[in-house]
Amino acid sequence: MALEHAILVSLDERSGSGYELARRFDRSIGFFWAATHQQIYRTLKRMVELGWVSVDEVAQDGRPDKKVYDITAAGHEELRRWVAEPSEPETFRHDLSVKVRGASLGDAAVLADEVARHRGLHGERLDAYRAIEKKDFPDPSALSGRQLHQYLVLRGGVRAEQALVEWCDEVLAALRQDESREDRR
Question: Is the model's pTM score more than 0.85?
């Protein structure tokens, strides 16, 4: 997926300034598509040139004018084209998995600390996703349209983080068991 498509989806949900879009990426879209504020601003400029978004300058007292971006008919058409386009499953690139695979080449205790740190971070993200789910989607069976689609993406995040927490627990237990075997030798 190109950053342009993530921005188009966000603008379809609600127009906003580059700053507002960057904050949305920090709080929601960024959970599954990361972008820096600088990347977002550069991409918005290109999208205006492509005619996918329009920009209106809004005067502000005592501050520079604010540029508010909105999706255009051409942007909606690009989104429809992109949504219909087949995509390949993502290639799984996971640095920690490579480290676990090479564990015998290093210090297993240091690796276990790193796995535990990752487990904690995935646990925190899982808790955050579940809090969003509870707050924003208290009755999933009543959802339809855009809200259902947002919920389904959130559920994907919940399941992915849950799987990573469980995998980290499995790795930690196996590393402890392996260390115990080594100690008995």
Answer: no
- The 10s digit of each residue's pLDDT in 102-126 is 988 888 889 999 999 999 999 999 9
Structure tokens at 176: 């402890």
Rounded mean pLDDT of 89-97? 84
Residue tagged 């929601």 (tokens):
28
- Give the three-state DSSP class for 46: helix
Task: Say how far apart CA 56 and CA 61 lie, in whole Å.
Answer: 16
Tokens of 130: 């579940």
- Asked whether the beta carbons of 112 and 176 are under 8 A apart, the reply is yes
Q: How many CA atoms lie within 13 A of 102 on its CB side?
A: 6
Residue 66, Ramachandran bin (φ over 0: left; ψ between -120 and 50: alpha; else beta): beta
Could you tell me the CA-to-CA distances from 30 to 39, 46, 119 in Å, in that order?
A: 13, 20, 20
3-state secondary structure 93-155: CCHHHHHHHCHHHCCHHHHHHHHHHHHHHHHHHHHHHHHHHHHHCCCHHHCCHHHHHHHHHHH
Residue with tokens 């924003």: 136
Give the separation between CA 146 and CA 78, rounded to whole angstroms: 18
